[in-house]
Design goal:
Elements: E1 11-18, E2 24-31, E3 37-43, E4 47-49, E5 55-57, H1 60-70, H2 78-94, E6 99-101, H3 102-116, H4 118-128, H5 134-146
Parallel strand pairs: 4-6
Antiparallel strand pairs: 1-2, 2-3, 4-5
Helix pairs in contact: 1-2, 1-4, 2-3, 3-4
Length: 158
């Protein structure tokens, strides 16, 4: 890390603290040349690999915006969506992978969304899993009623 004041490439860490949500570390540094102090934020990188082959940084806001559409008109708050996105990110990071397929992000959304709101779950699953008929909906509803909603009705679209 270059000193923002004198551009010296060497600094030492004076203090480190976790952020409120524990996803990043704030480090207070001191330049070994000019002695001035500055702060840095460090986060572990996580990339999402799209079907097109393009990799982009993981984004909680993309999860929230995608799930918000499924939750339209449902009693789901912005706080609920933020918690869902955090839960999804934590489960993905727990896998230990630095890059994950977009399809796996969608799968990670399904279970927390089912617990949050079953109607929103059905809406999201119908698009994500590519329901093509009423039978697909009926099968998914039957699994919800029997308590085994984690099993997809149809193969996820690749």
């Amino acid at each position: 890390m270059y000193c923002p004041f004198c551009r010296n490439p060497d600094s030492r860490v004076v203090d480190s603290r976790l952020s409120d949500d524990g996803s990043s570390i704030r480090r207070r540094r001191q330049c070994t040349d000019c002695g001035r102090r500055f702060s840095t934020m460090e986060t572990a990188s996580l990339s999402v690999s799209k079907r097109s082959g393009v990799a982009e940084p993981f984004s909680r806001s993309k999860i929230i915006s995608g799930v918000r559409k499924a939750c339209q008109g449902r009693p789901v708050t912005d706080d609920d969506l933020a918690k869902l996105a955090q839960e999804v990110e934590e489960s993905i990071r727990a896998s230990g992978a630095a890059e994950i397929e977009a399809n796996e992000v969608g799968l990670a959304i399904l279970e927390p969304l089912r617990r949050l709101d079953v109607v929103a779950y059905l809406r999201f699953a119908s698009v994500y899993q590519g329901f093509e008929s009423l039978e697909d909906f009926e099968a998914s509803i039957a699994r919800l009623r029997s308590g085994s909603a984690a099993q997809p009705a149809v193969d996820a679209i690749s």
